Amino acid sequence: MTGVAERTGTADAMDGAARRANRWSGERPLWPLAPFAVAGVALLGLPILGLVSQAPWRRMPELLTSDGAVEALRLSLVCSLSATAASVVLGVPLAWVLAHGRGPLMALLRGVVTLPLVLPPVVGGIALLLTFGRNGLVGRFLNETTGLSLPFTTAGVVVAETFVAMPFLVITVESAFRSADAALEEAAATLGAGRLVVLRTVTLPLLLPSLGAGVVLTWARALGEFGATITFAGNLPGTTQTLPLYVYGLLESGDIDGAVGMSLVLVVVAFAVLLLLRDRWLRPGGVGGGLS
Asked: Is 41 inside a domain boundary?
């Protein structure tokens, strides 16, 4: 009887603990925090609402079809897609190394790879200029041997966009590499498949959903890049003036309606990307887990 009583008491204690845990598990809103949450939503949402409310809707067709806008959009698409392709070619192998490497060197390498995520874009542009400029660390060699000069060229825009956007693909794909089912890879290896065959036939197919999410996110970041681009490549219409730089030029020239209208285009693109990735990037434990 004593044992039954003890077990009953233990069960009651566990039920009480469970009820207390449910009380604090977030099922019920914590009302004292609500005003701060509302203020946070307002801070993030009201600027977008202000942009939408002030958009020159009647002039949108005119703004979108103007020569400057069409050229800036064309250049933005070409450069952002090129930067995304370069990020895939360079970033996937880099993600594999980071996912499978060990030791302090990997920690240092991961820090270098993710640094552009937190680096001020203009600082990144200065770093690129000092590296790939005519008298830069690498640029001098390129210029002397091939005559190639990256600053203030379309190729320079691609380099700047790749620099700031590739870390998004790397951390996404690295997370996918880490979470890949090792049992499937081991099974393929026991059947005699080499490491490259396992990578091609087992790992990469498992990687495709995360790779797709990383590609879309990388492209969106490259499309919206501004600071590193204008510092390293300048703002030359038809050559380096992408859509964000075109918006900046409209604002400087006093065309507020044009700047607001083209800004709205970038907001729509960014919002569409977030909707596309909401189930994969934004959910807890999703691809974004690679950031932790």
From this structure: no
